[in-house]
C-alpha cells in the first residue's frame, strides 16, 4: 500500500527542512515515534526507533540537503515502511511538503495506516508554525492537499 499527501506550511523551506532533518526532533512532531537512538552513536544513518505497540525497529535515514529530500526505510516485526519527505518552495515564502509512504508486510493491509502521512504532516505543520503540538492524536485534514 502506498499513501502520499501534501501540505502547505507558512514557514520558509529552509526552516521547515531544519525540522525534518533534525532526527532528534522527530518524536515531537511524529506521533508514531516514542524514542530514537543512533545505532552506533557516530553519525550513522542507522537508527533504532521505538514505536507504540511494536517496540523497537531499525530505520535507515538518508538526507539530501540540496534538494531538501529525506528518505527512510524502517523495518521490524514483519513489516516495513519506506518513506520520502520533500520540502519544496511555495509562493509567499511558504513551503509545500510532500510525504510519500510505501508499506510492506502486514502494514500494507492495515487500514489505519492510510492516514499516517496526513497525520504526520498536520503535526509537522503545527510544530513548524507554533513550536508545539497541542493535541498529539488529532488528525486535522483540512490543510492536507
UniProtKB/TrEMBL annotation:
Pfam families: Polyketide_cyc2
Domain of life: Bacteria
InterPro entries noted in UniProt: Polyketide_cyclase/dehydratase, START-like_dom_sf
Protein name: Cyclase/dehydrase
Organism: Sulfobacillus acidophilus (strain ATCC 700253 / DSM 10332 / NAL)
Species lineage: Bacteria, Bacillati, Bacillota, Clostridia, Eubacteriales
